[in-house]
Amino acid sequence: MAQLLAQEEKEKTTALKDLLSRIDLDELMKKDEPPLNFPETLDEFEYAFNEHGQLRHIHTGEPFVFNYKEDLHRWNQKRYEALGEVMLMMIIF
């Protein structure tokens, strides 16, 4: 009897692992995500560097907020990367 229960548990675990391996986590995370359209200038992001060289929001004076949209880590990361690209272009040009 114990061997039968152990075998059933093993089969359930195997089936669950198989199911999880077929889930595309990136696609799942995109489900309710806003479009990945971000500003192309620092002004459009509404950020500027202050007299101390600190990146601050132009209206609030607050530092950059990574978690701009709560519970959307992938989107927030892409926004962060887009802002980095804007700043890189400022250095290059």
UniProtKB/TrEMBL annotation:
Domain Arb2 residues, every copy: 38-86
Gene Ontology cellular-component annotations: nucleus
Segments traversing the membrane: none
Superkingdom assignment: Eukaryota
Pfam family, one: Arb2
Molecular function via GO: siRNA binding
GO BP term, example: regulatory ncRNA-mediated heterochromatin formation
Signal peptide boundaries: none
Name of the featured protein: Protein FAM172A-like
Species of the source: Carassius auratus (Goldfish)
Gene from which this protein is expressed: LOC113050010
